[in-house]
Automatic annotation (TrEMBL):
The protein, known as: Sugar kinase
Entry keywords, A to Z: Kinase, Transferase
Upper taxonomic lineage: Archaea, Methanobacteriati, Methanobacteriota, Stenosarchaea group, Halobacteria
Organism: Halorubrum tibetense
Molecular function via GO: kinase activity
């Protein structure tokens, strides 16, 4: 049986400065800032789990295997 799987490449980022601009309306709220994107990154993979004895929709987390 094959499991459905998705992988995302997430580049590193260092924020140099940041300012929030809240507003009563979400459409008018926002932020400003700048920083550096790094070549170091993380690759995150998720897949549908197998039968763990929990309910079928119960989420689980596994780190490093």
């Amino acid at each position: 049986m094959t499991r459905e799987r998705a992988t995302a490449f997430v580049p590193g980022h260092v924020t140099a400065f940041f300012s929030a601009h809240p507003a009563d309306s979400p459409a008018a709220a926002g932020s400003r800032g700048a920083g550096l994107t790094l070549t170091d990154a993380v690759e995150a993979t998720v897949e549908l789990g197998g039968d763990t004895g929990d309910t079928p929709d119960s989420p689980s987390l596994s780190l490093n295997g």
